[in-house]
Amino acid sequence: xxxxxLFSLPIALxxxxxxxxxxxxxxxxxxxxxKTEDKDQALIKSSEINQAYKTLLSVDSRAAYLLALKQQxxxxxxxxHDFEFLQSALEIRxxxxxxxxxxxxxxxxxxxxxxxxxLVREFKLDYTQEDWSEAxxxxxxxxxxxxxxxxxxxxxxxxxxxxxxxxxxxF
Length: 171
Prior knowledge:
This protein is mainly α.
């Protein structure tokens, strides 16, 4: 059974994340070690459910998993060789490093989301046309931008922590 079938979802890049979460919670309850006699088997099943959920939750890992189902997921860890993309990626990283307030981070997040949306469209086309080389390249780019989104979140948290810290506070 593949991850999509496990959660009763269609095998597609676009899935209902609310339905994924609902199904995940239901399966977690069903296979909770405290609710079954075979605790070892329940732990194994629970671990499989967690891994499947994590895989389907983010668009980059879901796209990579779709490639895996088609046995086309090899070389996903290779470097990106698209010079224009790498130039844009470097500029985005520089913007993130230079961001000093939440407005700048929000603008950057919007730009990164636009990139992700475009890459999702590209992946769907590549996948439909079975252009596996391009689909793999698109997954690599999606992974890059998912990491940038994670780093933007960390930067936002850091800015909020810095705003909450005041040297005049009594300790």
